[in-house]
User: Fold these one by one.
Assistant:
Number 1:
Amino acid sequence: MTMLNIENLSVWFGGGRDRVDAVRRANFHVARGASFGLVGESGSGKSTILRAIMGLVSNWSGTISVDATPVGKKREKTFYKAVQMVFQDPYASLHPRHSVDQVLGETLYLHGFRDIDARVVKLLDDVGLGAKFRFRYPHQLSGGQRQRVAIARALAPEPSILLLDEPTSALDVSIQAEILNLLTDLRSEHGLTYVMVSHDLSVVGHMCESLAVMKDGEIVEIMDVETLRNAKAQHAYSKKLLAASI
Ligand SMILES: Nc1ncnc2c1ncn2[C@@H]1O[C@H](COP(=O)(O)OP(=O)(O)OP(=O)(O)O)[C@@H](O)[C@H]1O
């Protein structure tokens, strides 16, 4: 059963001579509970696809369907119950003067939950932090701990889909694997569907079942991870990307 379906998605910025066609006629679908990777060099349009799904860009065309329902130009509140995003930089994505309790409590409140105390504690537990982190502020947390808070915030509405934009690339190499393992565990425990952007093919090979290779705003190839592992990519650009990552 398809959880996320992207058809003919195009995204552009600006107009006239300044127009940038960041994504051109992208197509892919992700089954419920699957993890799909988007790889490609810097500027190829990977993050823009996630931002378009999330409703963070204004100029797009095509169809984005979540659980067989096409989303409108303006996302409804119910959309954000189903789809959440984790950003690359946990230093930029948390408000410096909001405690972990405020970040999670307010998100839960906005999504209509009323058993907030119990849920804050459960979320902290789910991301491996525990209740002792509840009243800390971002400056009292390491990068990895901040990203765990950002993941807890994304999990708060009990979404079906997590969009992960290079979730470990701003972190120390030593803790990247911890966060990736946490994401793997959360996917199976919560039955989540992932779309994950990474410039690191080994990360995608570890985290995803299939992936799309992007170049200059276009998806040039979609393959399963077995194909990636066996270095059997078809498209010349995918081959080049693979060769560069070995
Ligand atoms: N807000 C914006 N205004 C104008 N152009 C933009 C904007 N956001 C992205 N772009 C352009 O769209 C193209 C795709 O960018 P995007 O960030 O999606 O690439 P990416 O593959 O995610 O790269 P990176 O790995 O560096 O994040 C680039 O040419 C970029 O300069």
Number 2:
Amino acid sequence: MSLLIKNGNIVTHDQAYRADILCDNGVITTIENSILETSSMEVIDAEGLLVMPGGIDPHTHMQLPFMGTVAIDDFESGTKAALAGGTTTIIDFVIPNPQQRILDAYHQWREWAEKSACDYSFHVAITWWANSVYQDMKTLVEQYGVNSFKHFMAYKNAIMATDEMMIASFNRCLELGAIPTVHAENGELVYHLQQSLLERGITGPEAHPSSRPPIVESEAANRAITIAAAIGSPIYIVHISAKQTVDAIQYAQNNGHRVYGECLAVHLTMDDSVYQNTNWEYAAAHVMSPPFRPKVHQQALWNGLTSGTLHTTATDHCAFCDEQKAMGKEDFTKIPNGVSSVEERLTLLWNEGVNKGRITANEFVALTSTNSAKIFNIYPQKGAIQIGSDADFVLWDQNRNKKISLKTQKSKVDFNIFEGMKVTGIPVCTILAGKVAYRDGDVIAQAGDGRYINRDTFAPYYSATKLKNQINQAKAVDRK
Ligand SMILES: NC(=O)NCCC(=O)O
Ligand SMILES: [Zn+2]
Ligand SMILES: [Zn+2]
């Protein structure tokens, strides 16, 4: 059956206009002032609503085995929560154990993700280096639609990538037309600071931010940018939380380097006072890396988004229950790192961004959807409202209020870090591939409704990268 969205105000990253949209077989087939409805069409009246491209969350961890446990939201509950929040595509992470074939890990994650209710794709983490990794990266790119590889510069003695590994992997990314991404924190320093805090008897969650101060992040970001710049590769830095990192990225961009930056809805809206709470469970529920920062960093992140230094917003959704967090009761370094927000990202961005005059509605679309689609090369299939684009939409009521609560959330986690927060501007209906997936509090999409999204290599920015590298290539002096 076709789907007709009537009377909506379409908002994309660069336009706002009133029109009807007809969708057939999961894609947009017609956009016109007025489309006549027929009996073969399901009709949605979007009068008074904004019709925007479905959100793309470029950073989630559903069902992640991590720090001795497994994230509580699996690909079904996590993607249903995403749809309830207006997100129609997630890019999750395959994180192989060191020494595990990265191709084997990829197949494992694909199997887990079959029950996704929204569309999904994968970044693959490089957690070790060997000839098989070099070979498998090519297979992943050529046969499985992967065009981004992740490097964790933190998590020493687990999945940390060394400089040597990053140099090898960034080079391989450049050959393959994929984009390297990094979790930027100096893992050696984090480890050192953690041990010294424990030695001083500071074992609670309040020690977490002290073990990961802003300079630990900005040093690593600088180092990753330097490696990428020396190799001539673009780079994407995930979950930037500190002003110093925004400054480092801006400096690199001003010096001609192609650096993309992501920040999280939680870092934009929450500060580090949560770690001082005397209730251990409350403070531990907020342990994630990088940690929440003093308010001055939040403003720097917003400034980074409005100035164009930062490009995307994500969640890093990685949900752990009280019982799981309690694994670190005696030692904060054992508290599983991660918080949940896949359902709240869009409404937080609207409430704190559009409603406070920090960003426009068009910028909201760019930051929640289009820019990710462009960087990870799925634009205009995703992130756009154009003929031929996937019929993924969020229908937005900018005047409707909601109180965020554990009671109404779709995530399985037993704590909501935004409990009681009042927001204005919420998704009332989410459409995935031309079908209503969420409406007025109910997720209609089923496990398995989401499709795997292949992502081609050599995103458009790569043509400039290749040409620049060719022009700047070192040449031998002929001394014959
Ligand atoms: N962010 C976090 O604390 N947990 C998930 C893993 C990661 O992204 O570092
Ligand atoms: Zn991370
Ligand atoms: Zn993450």
